[in-house]
């Protein structure tokens, strides 16, 4: 059976980005069928050297660079810049995450490429965007979490500001960048013109904290840390059971009545301290004592079963292993297995959106450094093998990382 073409098949993306936010953007486009050509310097993307490793390959690099081809080009030399510009002239999308001004110095800025390819959609992902007094600054996830109020709003009220447990600023910036690219491609269908998509991690992180921003915009007061509970509802947070913690979410009186009955404490329904959501939030400490006097003698499994049966939103607090091994994660296909470069199997995250028109999206392994240099230059630019060899000898294309692999394959064939 021939599967229907994925929504972005036929679109070509040139990806100059490295590490996380930019590569995630292009990986998401590749998931949907776009051809993604990753341009790497001779030393490769820095993420190739960051562990953990499996089979000699970085797990982080593999996840962020699935579905891509790797071409090594040294953009610091004239011949390298000319090759990159020629590839971009045949592309639909370019993604880069240099600091503002660097792409221009390398000859691959938006204005430079758009002059040759006016239909180009060009996405720049940077710490603070292309404008503003902070635009020149380098940025990492921790910098943005600190500057955007996310750390200040996370943690215990009497504790230190706390880093969220994953690189959320990078991730949300990559997601917004892919969203911007898709919007620009849709507009191009109507106008025929490309555009520059400017994504600042600063902007994206503030947009991620929608509720914090909304509270401040309404009150003019910066929200304070409240720990593992909701700032304006109760009981809505983490509570202790006999063998650990669980979370419960009660947002109205109907659910609170169910909770009181499930705990065998119907008297709480008529307690003035807990008469409505605002009162329960104000008296959350007293309510917590009531809840934990009940849950503290039950296991997490017992609490989860009793409250679920009562129709109350409740869940155990799972680690990432438990989440990914769950039947729900398996049913939804969150992790998929793909053939690895060494002939083994690599597990990769699948993009999370499911479409009725496409039974599955694409998830293939990340490329070895420079694995597709020869093929891409021949197929896209018509450069012959001798010319590629000359460029490599001049240092424009780095070392032929696939030579050893080809020799091994050839030797195996000869010995067969």
From TrEMBL:
UniProt keyword annotation of Aminoacyl-tRNA synthetase present: no
Keywords attached to this entry: Transferase
Molecular-function annotations in GO: CoA-transferase activity
The keyword Transferase is annotated on this UniProt entry: yes
Family matches, as InterPro entries: CoA-transferase_III_domain (IPR050483), CoA-Trfase_fam_III (IPR003673), CoA-Trfase_III_dom3_sf (IPR044855), CoA-Trfase_III_dom_1_sf (IPR023606)
Pfam families assigned to the protein according to its UniProt record, in alphabetical order: CoA_transf_3
Name of the protein in its database record: CoA:oxalate CoA-transferase
Classification of source organism: Bacteria, Pseudomonadati, Pseudomonadota, Betaproteobacteria, Burkholderiales
């Amino acid at each position: 059976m021939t599967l229907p073409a994925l929504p972005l098949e036929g679109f070509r993306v040139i990806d100059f980005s490295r590490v996380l936010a930019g590569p995630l953007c292009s990986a998401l486009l590749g998931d949907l069928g776009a051809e993604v050509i990753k341009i790497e310097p001779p030393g490769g993307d820095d993420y190739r050297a960051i562990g953990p490793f499996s089979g000699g390959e970085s797990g982080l690099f593999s996840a962020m660079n699935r579905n891509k081809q790797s071409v090594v080009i040294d953009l610091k030399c004239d011949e390298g810049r000319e090759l990159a510009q020629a590839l971009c002239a045949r592309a639909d999308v370019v993604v880069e995450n240099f600091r503002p001004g660097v792409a221009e110095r390398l000859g691959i800025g938006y204005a430079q490429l758009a002059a040759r390819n006016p239909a180009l959609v060009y996405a720049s992902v940077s710490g603070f965007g292309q404008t503003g007094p902070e635009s020149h600054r380098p940025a990492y996830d921790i910098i943005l979490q600190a500057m955007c109020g996310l750390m200040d709003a996370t943690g215990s009220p009497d504790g230190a500001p706390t880093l969220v447990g994953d690189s959320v600023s990078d991730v949300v910036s990559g997601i917004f960048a892919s969203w911007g690219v898709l919007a620009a491609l849709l507009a191009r269908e109507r106008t025929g013109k490309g555009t520059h998509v400017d994504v600042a991690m600063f902007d994206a992180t503030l947009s991620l904290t929608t509720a914090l921003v909304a509270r401040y915009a309404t009150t003019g007061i910066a929200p304070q840390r409240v720990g593992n509970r909701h700032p304006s509802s109760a009981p809505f947070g983490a509570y202790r059971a006999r063998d650990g913690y669980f979370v419960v979410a009660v947002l109205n009186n109907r659910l609170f009545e169910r909770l009181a009955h499930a705990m065998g404490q119907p008297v709480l329904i008529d307690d003035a301290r807990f008469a409505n959501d605002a009162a329960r939030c104000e008296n959350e400490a007293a309510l917590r004592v009531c809840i934990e006097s009940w849950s503290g003698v039950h296991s997490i499994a017992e609490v989860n079963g009793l409250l679920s049966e009562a129709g109350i939103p409740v869940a155990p607090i799972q680690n990432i292993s438990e989440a990914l091994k769950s039947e729900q994660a398996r049913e939804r296909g969150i992790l998929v297995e793909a053939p690895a470069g060494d002939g083994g199997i690599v597990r990769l995250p699948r993009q999370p959106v499911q479409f009725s028109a496409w039974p599955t999206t694409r998830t293939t392994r990340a490329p070895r450094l420079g694995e597709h240099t020869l093929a891409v230059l021949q197929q896209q630019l018509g450069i012959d093998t001798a010319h590629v060899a000359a460029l490599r000898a001049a240092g424009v294309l780095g070392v032929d990382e696939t030579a050893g692999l080809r020799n091994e394959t050839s030797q195996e064939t000869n010995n067969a």
